[in-house]
Amino acid sequence: MNRREFLETVAAAAVVPTLALQDAAHEWGSPVFDLHFHLRPQPAGNIAHLDGAGVTKANLLTRGSALDQLKALQATAPSRFTWFSSYDVTKSDAEQVLTQAVKSGAQGFGEMKFHVAADGPELRRMYALAADLRVPILIHFQEVDHTPNEGTWSTGFAKTFASILKEYPMTTFIGHADAFWANVSADYHNEAVYPAGPVKRGGVTDRWLGDYPNLFGDMSAVSGSNAMARDPEFTTDFLKRHQDKLLFGSDCSCSDGHGAGYNNPAAPRMAGKCVARETLSVLKRSTSSVVFQKIVWGNAHTLLRIPE
Ligand SMILES: [Zn+2]
Ligand SMILES: [Zn+2]
Fold first, then answer.
1. What's the rounded Cα separation, in Å, for the pair 220 and 37?
2. Dihedral over alpha carbons 141, 63, 256, 151 (to 10 degrees)
């Protein structure tokens, strides 16, 4: 190897990480921010999913103390992660612990997934605190078990949540999961986990996204993906209508960003698939590049007040 060849080899090696990041950003024609990514124990496991799925940055959902893990990951991949914090809302020190998390850098509460009512006292305390601290609160709404005795979370969404949205105008709510997404259709009454077929227009989720400036939608998980895949005509209009209120997220547990190991017993059709890729694909084919970029990148930056 002569001197010129040697220098070219060194230069090529030096640019590899940057190129890898750019390739990831361009796979979908836009950089992608994953709002709903559960923190994995090893730094490499987190990065493998982002890189594999073509995701540029992700918001890590953590529960309880995770600062050491977060610091290790931030050191490995600076500027690719933001984080939210969650804590058992039935515990008396929940407000104290979550306030401390925000002081330590958490940019939101979530995901809030507990066996309490959506309009009960435990979550009401959190809605008030989120407003005080000026951070969004991401909530898992689920009324139907996936497996026997699994239980339900933040119950009563369709019946009671309009009153909460009115009562807490200074709180930024991000809705997620089965009940939130099944209720895009007006004919849903907690029958199926992931309802299929045409959407009956006028579901509460669709109406409330339009009526309440403090409600946003997290499109993650099979619930979000399914809601966007079931009725293409509805999806195109819905994305256009709520283009400033929707945020892409994956909630995917596959290991490589290509579906390895993914298995959701309630959604056999998703076995071996990556939820991030499925949702990004349906969004991409259902809307313009301008709206797509808002949903997968821009809106999260505005909501979390992070520079692009
Ligand atoms: Zn969830
Ligand atoms: Zn995946």
1. 9
2. -40
The answer to whether 35 and 57 are in contact (CB under 8 A) is: no
221 CA distance to ligand 2 middle (Å) = 10
Counting ligands in written order, which one lies closest to the CA of residue 253? 2
Q: DSSP 3-state assignment of 26?
A: helix
Give the tens place of pLDDT for each residue, 155-176: 999 999 999 999 999 999 999 9
Rounded Cα–Cα distance for residues 37 and 48 (Å): 12
Q: For residue 179, give the ligand nearest its CA.
A: 1
Ligand nearest to the CA of 252: 2
> Which is nearest to 45 in space by CA: 275, 253, 297?
253
The radius of gyration of the chain's CA atoms, rounded to the nearest angstrom, is 20
Q: What pairs with residue 218 in β-bridges?
A: 247
CB atoms near residue 207 (< 10 Å): 15
CA–centroid distance, residue 185 to ligand 1 (Å): 20
Please state the φ and ψ torsions of residue 36, each to the nearest 5 degrees: -125, 85
CB 194 within 8 A of CB 226: yes
Angle subtended at Cα 109 by Cα 300 and Cα 290, rounded to the nearest 5 degrees: 10
**Whether the bond into 122 is cis, omega within 30 of 0:** no
Q: Tell me which ligand sits closest to the C-alpha of residue 84.
A: 1
Task: Return d(Cα 56, Cα 26) in angstroms, integer.
Answer: 9
**The residue to which tokens 């914090």 are assigned:** 85
Tell me the per-residue pLDDT of 19-61, one tens digit each, with 9 for 90 and over.
Answer: 445 444 579 999 999 999 999 999 999 999 999 999 999 999 9
d(CA 277, CA 259) in angstroms, rounded, equals 9
Rounded distance from Cα 63 to ligand 1 centre (Å): 13
- For the chain, helix (H) and strand (E) counts, in that order, are 13, 8
Q: Which of 37, 14, 18 shows the shortest CA–CA distance to 26?
A: 18
